[in-house]
Design a protein that fits this description.
The protein is an alpha/beta fold. About 35% of the residues lie in helices and about 25% in strands. The mean pLDDT is about 95.
Length: about 375
């Protein structure tokens, strides 16, 4: 089958790898002039590394391992809860790692057949009939396909073909993030920190090679202007918080800080129309508050190839199977992430929840939102690109 993937992000590259391994003729088109390596860092949980294993992508040397997540109160650093994430890694057989996004993108692209990736090609229109689909690009060129995959993110150009309009809406929060060398104990540890207070939220994760992934969340109106200096704003709002927040802010640089406003949507049925299907943020945009965006995109790419494989050439049945397998997990993830639950300051809730209970629940939660952890009863041999 001839497949055109729009978007060479995490989900698009995952789908490209999986479909090539299944013998499809795949071309991936990206609007940028090269692989997009922005985006600070991200966390791969057991469901994400399970997909990487299934795709034949090595991950043991990506970033840094994460075994624990500690939630602290911002003003005095008091421990509110400590989640044993390693329990889930042992249970499912796949570890957790925090890694620069650029390294994951490069790893997903590594080994793709020559001519698979096409850069500087912005999709502007898609036309289809019962027999085929055609993607038109801004440069006037066009390409025909049996299936078009919209993996072009939360500002998807493909999404309108399926949904008819942008289904997302502002979530009322925003993130400022960076990836910086910061000489603190967290950078050298296997523990991520979630720090909460009335002023907002700070997250800190070791990302390997002396780098610290950090982000600050605070309420944000879509009409609010950006401050003249983001670092000055963050220091004014969070500078009085307990260590290592002050050390992190001291290393922050306006030129390296990335901003994005949170958006959410109601995840429903209908991820495809005819020969066009969506995955990742194009299908289900969600805030980053439960650190599942990249993992859910990886799951989508793997599950789409699996659905087409199960359907054995029946495209409508394959797309239906893909949506069926992913709907529950994506819907639940969006529901929790869209509530901004980790951003909201509820210090009493952490103190009243035993660490053993929250660790047990986190292990169960990963399976509740995953397709691959439910479908794979045991680790399988990695896919081989053809």
């Amino acid at each position: 089958m001839r497949v055109v993937v729009i978007g060479a992000g995490i989900g698009g590259l995952a789908a490209t790898r999986a479909l090539i391994a299944d013998g499809h003729e795949v071309a991936c088109y990206e609007r940028a002039d090269a692989l997009r390596t922005s985006g600070s860092a991200l966390t791969l949980w057991s469901n994400g590394t399970a997909v990487l294993h299934a795709l034949g992508v090595p991950y043991d040397d990506l970033g840094a391992p994460i075994d624990y997540l500690a939630m602290l109160r911002g003003t005095d650093g008091r421990m509110l809860m400590d989640i044993d994430c390693a329990r889930a890694a042992v249970r499912y057989g796949y570890p957790h790692r925090s890694t620069p996004r650029r390294d994951l993108i490069r790893r997903l692209a590594d080994g793709l057949p020559e001519g698979t990736l096409h850069f500087g090609r912005r999709a502007v229109a898609i036309e289809q009939d019962p027999g085929s689909a055609e993607v038109r690009f801004a440069d006037g060129s066009a390409v025909a396909a049996d299936l078009v995959i919209g993996a072009d993110g939360s500002r998807s150009a493909v999404r309108d073909v399926v949904y008819g309009a942008d289904p997302t809406r502002p979530a009322g929060w925003a993130t400022w993030q960076g990836l910086t060398p910061v000489d603190v104990e967290t950078t050298r540890s296997r523990r991520g920190l979630m720090i909460v207070g009335r002023e907002g939220f700070c997250g800190l994760m070791p990302a390997g090679n002396g780098l610290l992934q950090w982000w600050f969340d605070r309420p944000w109106n879509a009409d609010d202007p950006q401050p003249p200096s983001v670092t000055a704003m963050l220091k004014e709002r969070f500078g009085h918080w307990a260590s290592p927040v002050a050390e992190t802010l001291a290393a922050a640089d306006d030129a390296q800080i990335e901003f994005f406003a949170h958006r959410r949507q109601k995840v429903g049925r209908g991820w495809s129309r005819g020969r066009v299907v969506l995955l990742g943020d194009a299908a289900h945009t969600m805030p980053p508050t439960v650190a599942q965006g990249a993992n859910q995109a990886l799951e989508d790419g793997w599950a789409l190839a699996r659905g087409l494989r199960v359907a054995a050439g029946d495209l409508p049945a394959g797309l239906a199977e893909y949506e069926r397998s992913r709907l529950k997990g994506a819907r639940l993830t969006q529901l929790v992430a869209g509530s901004e639950v980790t951003d909201k300051y509820r210090p009493g809730a952490g103190l009243l929840t035993p660490n053993a209970l929250i660790s047990w629940f986190y292990t169960r939660w990963l399976k509740m939102i995953s397709t691959i952890l439910n479908e794979q009863r045991q680790p399988v041999a990695p896919a081989v690109l053809r």
